[in-house]
Specification:
It contains six helices and seven strands. By secondary structure, the protein is of the alpha/beta class. It has a single domain, classed as 3-Layer(aba) Sandwich (Rossmann fold), CATH 3.40.50. Strand 6, helix 6 and strand 7 form a beta-alpha-beta unit. The protein binds guanosine-5'-triphosphate (GTP) and magnesium ion (MG). Guanosine-5'-triphosphate binds next to helix 1.
């Protein structure tokens, strides 16, 4: 059970869409989506042919274990290999709540700025894996250094693995193997 966190719009759902396409033949995957409103994310996942349950938090900026527990009652979880939880998009609230998950994966997109691990240490310190997304945009940005972002992360947590990828063009995505 993987808790996927990032700022809003960093590509969490795009990563899930691409990962499901790659792994759905070998793994049974389901997704819990958390947003303030709309079923948009769950619909995008269902289009990929896997089960997705949308939690609408209303005004809450994070999911919690109680909400996840309720969602699981609505899902067919027997025989699941992987359950992704896409948390509500922001770098603050989701970091402080235990959902009963096994791993935290934090996305940082290159459009966010490479100083974010230092500015939002609670979330990045809790990461088992940091993913740098939207690398296809790097040639257009003169102020995002993946090495600087990694250094900021490793100042908080020495051994956290980092993978760089683009959900848009697929480059680097094969490195993300959540069943490992
Ligand atoms: N250029 C580029 N755009 C991307 C990439 N990944 C996602 N996007 C775009 O970024 C926007 C947001 O992507 P989403 O997957 O909806 O991001 P999200 O983190 O799930 O957003 P929320 O659920 O609203 O927090 C969309 O327009 C995507 O097409 C990428 O690797 N490169
Ligand atoms: Mg999303």
């Amino acid at each position: 059970m993987i808790n996927l966190m990032s700022s809003l719009g960093d590509g969490k759902t795009a990563l899930l869409e691409a990962t499901i396409k790659r792994l759905r033949k070998s793994l049974k995957i389901a997704v819990i989506e958390g947003d303030l409103e709309t079923e948009n994310n769950a619909l995008r996942i269902q289009t990929q042919g896997v089960s997705a349950f949308q939690i609408s938090t209303g005004s809450a900026c994070h999911l919690d274990a109680h909400l996840v527990h309720n969602a699981l009652h609505h899902m067919a979880i027997d025989g699941l290999d992987l359950l992704f939880i896409e948390n509500v998009g922001n770098l603050v609230c989701p970091a402080s709540f235990d959902l009963g998950h096994h791993r935290n994966v934090v996305l940082l997109s290159v459009t966010e700025g490479d100083d974010k691990p230092a500015k939002y240490p609670v979330m990045f310190r809790a990461a088992d894996l940091m993913l740098i997304n939207k690398t296809d945009l790097l040639p257009h940005l003169d102020d995002f250094s993946p090495d600087h972002a990694k250094q900021q992360l490793h100042n908080l947590a020495d051994n956290t693995v980092v993978i760089e990828f683009s959900a848009k063009n697929g480059q680097g995505l094969d490195e993300f193997n959540p069943s490992r």
